Amino acid sequence: MSRTFDILSKVGDEPAFRQEIRDWLAATVPADWRRRWQAVRESELKAIVVDWLEERRKVGLATPHWPREWGGPGIPFAYQIIVYEEFARADAPELDMFTISLFHTPATLFEHGTQAQKDRYLGGITQGADIWCQGFSEPGAGSDLASLRTSARAESGHYVVNGQKIWSSAAMHADYCLLLARTDPNGPRKHDGISYFIMDMKTPGIEVRPIRQITGEAEFAEIFLDDVKIPAENLIGAEGDGWNIAQSTLSTERGLLIFGAVERLARSFELDGKEAKDGWMRDVQLRREYAAFHAELQSLRLMIRKLLIELEANPDKASPTLPTYIKLIWGPFLQRYTEFLLRAEGIDALKWQPSIPGTGHSSRLRMNDFLKSYGWTIAGGSNEIMRNIVSERILGLPRG
Amino acid sequence: MSDELDPGVLAESFAEMLGAEWPREKAVAWSQAPALFAEPLWEQMAALGWTALTVPEAYGGLGLGMEAAAALHAALGAAAAPVPMLGTTLAAALLGAAGSEAQRTKLLPGLADGSSRAAVAQPGDMPIRLDGGSVGATIPDMIGAPAATLLFLRGERAGRPCWLALPADASGVSIAATALTDATRTLGTVTLDGVTVDEDALILAEDPAALDDHLLRVAAIAIAADAIGGGEAALAGTIDYMKVREQFGRVIGSFQALKHRVADHQAALVAARGLVEHAAGLPDDAPHALLDALSAKQHVTRTVAEIARDCIQLHGGVGFTAEFFPHIYLKRGKLNEVLFGTRTILLDRIADMLEAA
């Protein structure tokens, strides 16, 4: 590397900031990173992801969306958007493994944590490489999360936790877990009596079993909890307030993650058409199908930009409906587009290849991307739940 | 484009007037006994300056751009108003882009004050040979022709494309109306038989292909806007019905099988509206102005036609009757899908542009 980069000093001059990120990305992201990450063994994956996090940290972009009081760079939202846009444009690796560490943990602790909790845990993210996971869903509590049954029994100075969590992304790599457990089984409503904890994943009684996905990867895991002792000072907020806390921090990513994902797909969409110039783009039917997706992709990008503009103008009061519509449109769109590519590319798209970590939903391994698209329609409130929300809360249709 | 007029404020005033003057009962009654166009409504629109919206100020217009035009066409689509506004928007764009000073002075004020009603040929129409002498030609399926006082036809002179502006009542011009399933617009076959074409009736563009693209963009935005307005109105009316119609002792809007369909339609319309507003807001010379307009047109008209179709089904038996409104939007929606380029034609053009990008 022949020069040093000072991206953050360019805040205040958008074009210069953008150019500095571009130059830094061009100098830092190896052209063959996809091949290298694809070749890495699961046991070595964390190391390669942490290396990339460290590269980002050198230029102050490990936590680009963090305000100064969290220990982040405190750059305006418009510049955070540029960061995500340029990362997508350059096809830089994603940090999926750190999603909870980078978004949910700081948002939760800053809003609801004690000073001691902030002091103790945030440094492990800003200066270290602590991986956090989320212990929310259970085998019997998916879309109906509030019916969770993992129990936390108060004893002197600590809670004793028993139960089972599932779909915890990166749990097998995690240092800590944001855990929801029931402290009072007799609450008037099922939402009551749930409490929110910080759980050290090295505590005895925790067993983590990776879940092999339909793509062949294991990105998430089951967590079995057998008399796990959590110190009382690890309770976040008040006992029984866990549901409200979880609700308030669920959307902490403020559209940036889906923005990045859709911008990555837009880049991929352009390449797909160009690379098929002498292939399926010569088939009039497939060419038309491809052209039709342009409008849908555009409409998503426009909705997300609108959301970001609203958030920039007023971080606390964005449209409550737009994220729901975006989720309802994005997952099925991704499913149909990736399925189209399977049909367009024929047998080549069905040949097995190891998945490529860090590529999110645009690995461009066709079958993998298609299968992975179901993550968007199932996770974070299945699209069926989203349809209930739209029809009941937005359109005012009565509950069945 | 004017900075003083917010398209949102305009849209509200359009909706308010149309809600009062062209309520759903009138739209239903019209569908059962249509005429060429709703003359009193057209006159009110003209009196309020709506027909002058995109006509340049120097010629009696308001000089607004496509954002305002899209707001107007969306409101007309929502009301399923039987007025030949598309012709006015297109003729103003044609004259504004390529008309001579004399042609603008002569034709634009009449369009602005609503005394002229225009019909403008579509992209695929066969050009009329104008190589001397009197002219004979047949132009089938011209949208708005039976209601028009002014015809804008495609011509060709010495191998070069041009436009021809003719009064609908000029000697040798006849228009035979063809009944349309969409009773809110008209269609006609224009026949020219021994028509003398004066030089000043010819509109000669410096770059005919660029003019075609400009008109196609304007048409695509106006039609997509009409479609989104219609789709939103059809769905909102259907949801209202689902809140009152009871079966098995409950309103049908409580059934999840119906609710989920409606939720998907609503999300699709929100996404579709974004496309229309974005396409309308781009300057004409923006790099993707045409691409985004055509993409919006093909997608929005298709989406809305599909939603209008489901509005019939969601209504059940009454949706099958002429007395209920859904069929009006379905028929208007199906016409919007094919006007100024069917979906396949537009998709081929979009694919060309994506490849060239």
From TrEMBL, chain A:
Q: Which InterPro entries match?
A: Acyl-CoA_Oxase/DH_mid-dom (IPR006091), Acyl-CoA_Oxase/DH_mid-dom_sf (IPR046373), AcylCo_DH-like_C (IPR036250), AcylCo_DH/oxidase_C (IPR009075), AcylCoA_DH/ox_N (IPR013786), AcylCoA_DH/ox_N_sf (IPR037069), AcylCoA_DH/oxidase_NM_dom_sf (IPR009100), Mycobact_Acyl-CoA_DH (IPR052161)
**Which ranges carry the Acyl-CoA dehydrogenase/oxidase C-terminal domain?**
240-395
Alphabetical keyword list: FAD, Flavoprotein, Oxidoreductase
Superkingdom, taxonomy of origin:
Bacteria
* Stored SUPFAM superfamilies: Acyl-CoA dehydrogenase C-terminal domain-like (SSF47203), Acyl-CoA dehydrogenase NM domain-like (SSF56645)
Please state which protein family the record places this protein in. Answer: Belongs to the acyl-CoA dehydrogenase family.
Q: What name does UniProt use for this protein?
A: Alkylation response protein AidB-like acyl-CoA dehydrogenase
Name the source organism: Sphingopyxis panaciterrulae
TrEMBL record, chain B:
Lineage, top-rank taxon, reads Bacteria
According to the entry, every stretch annotated as the Acyl-CoA dehydrogenase/oxidase N-terminal domain falls at: 25-114
Source species of the chain: Sphingopyxis panaciterrulae
Task: Kindly state which keywords UniProt assigns to this record, in alphabetical order.
Answer: FAD, Flavoprotein, Oxidoreductase
* Family assignment from sequence similarity: Belongs to the acyl-CoA dehydrogenase family.
Q: Which PANTHER family match?
A: ACYL-COA DEHYDROGENASE, ACYL-COA DEHYDROGENASE FADE28
**Could you tell me what this protein is called?**
Alkylation response protein AidB-like acyl-CoA dehydrogenase
> Which cofactors does it use?
FAD
Q: Does the keyword Mitochondrion apply?
A: no
Q: Where is the Acyl-CoA dehydrogenase/oxidase C-terminal domain?
A: 216-352
Give the molecular function GO annotations: acyl-CoA dehydrogenase activity; flavin adenine dinucleotide binding
